[in-house]
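Good morning,

Attaching, inline, the backbone tokens for the sequence recovery test we're adding to the shared suite. The designed sequence is right after.
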């Protein structure tokens, strides 16, 4: 076919959805006009969704599932497209996190989502909405995603979870004093679980700190590796082992320099009591 635009499913969740839609259509030998007729929309709309220029609405995705007989696969995939308040690559990372055998996290400034209490998550999101950085609807999506991630980790057998928190995560107030006290108490509870390790990277590590930005590394059941790293404006999902292994090495170096779990819990207790 002439002028057929090549699709890159790695570009964005919208592009991945568009490729899936085109593949399903091609498998059935339908033209865009024929699919549009079945879905009671225009072929221009089909083209825009396939090329990632228009995100699929929940109604569009459900209709496509009905037409293709795909259950709710397209509707579920469309949810990642609608996580517009999240950095590129993070919605896909979350799907892998829910199946990982081992999870390694390093966070700076804020508590990682899998450890946030409902009060902490709500307070953090409320401030972001107040600044106009996201809409109230996107804020609701963020809070729902926190719950989704935490629920997914409550499986049998549970994953091994290693967390290193920069000391700034403990010192940065979020919400009320009661909110922070509850959040710090949650960290202590997490450290006591049999499948977890919690460490704090103190400020006095200085230039011995091998990482300065948040990093997540997953080990899957087949021992495959995947990483997600982010800055203020960009997220990067990495699947190539040659790229992930150096990040995993840096994470292990960070763990070696960070406080032990016992010392980490002690500093958390000190912050709670306001004695440090």
């Amino acid at each position: 076919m002439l002028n057929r635009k090549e699709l890159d499913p790695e570009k964005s969740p919208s592009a991945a959805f568009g490729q899936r839609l085109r593949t399903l259509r091609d498998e059935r030998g339908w033209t865009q006009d024929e699919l549009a007729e079945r879905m009671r929309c225009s072929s221009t709309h089909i083209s825009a969704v396939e090329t990632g220029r228009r995100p699929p609405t929940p109604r569009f995705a459900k209709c496509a599932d009905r037409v293709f007989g795909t259950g709710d696969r397209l509707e579920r995939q469309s949810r990642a497209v609608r996580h517009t308040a999240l950095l590129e690559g993070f919605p896909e990372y979350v799907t892998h996190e829910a199946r990982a055998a081992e999870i390694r996290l390093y966070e700076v400034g804020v508590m990682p989502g899998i450890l946030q209490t409902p009060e902490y998550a709500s307070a953090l999101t409320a401030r972001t909405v107040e600044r106009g950085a996201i809409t109230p609807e996107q804020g609701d999506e963020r809070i729902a995603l926190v719950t989704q991630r935490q629920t997914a980790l409550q499986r049998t057998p549970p994953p091994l979870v290693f967390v290193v928190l920069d000391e700034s995560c403990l010192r940065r107030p979020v919400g009320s004093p009661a909110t922070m006290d509850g959040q710090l108490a949650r960290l202590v509870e997490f450290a006591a679980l049999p499948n977890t390790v919690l460490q704090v990277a103190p400020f006095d590590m200085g230039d011995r700190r091998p990482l300065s930005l948040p990093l997540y590394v997953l080990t899957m059941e087949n021992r495959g590796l995947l990483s997600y790293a982010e800055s203020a404006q960009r997220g990067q999902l990495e699947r190539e082992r040659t790229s992930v292994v150096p990040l995993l090495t840096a994470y292990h170096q960070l763990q070696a320099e960070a406080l032990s779990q016992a010392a980490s819990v002690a500093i958390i207790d000190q912050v709670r009591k306001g004695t440090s």
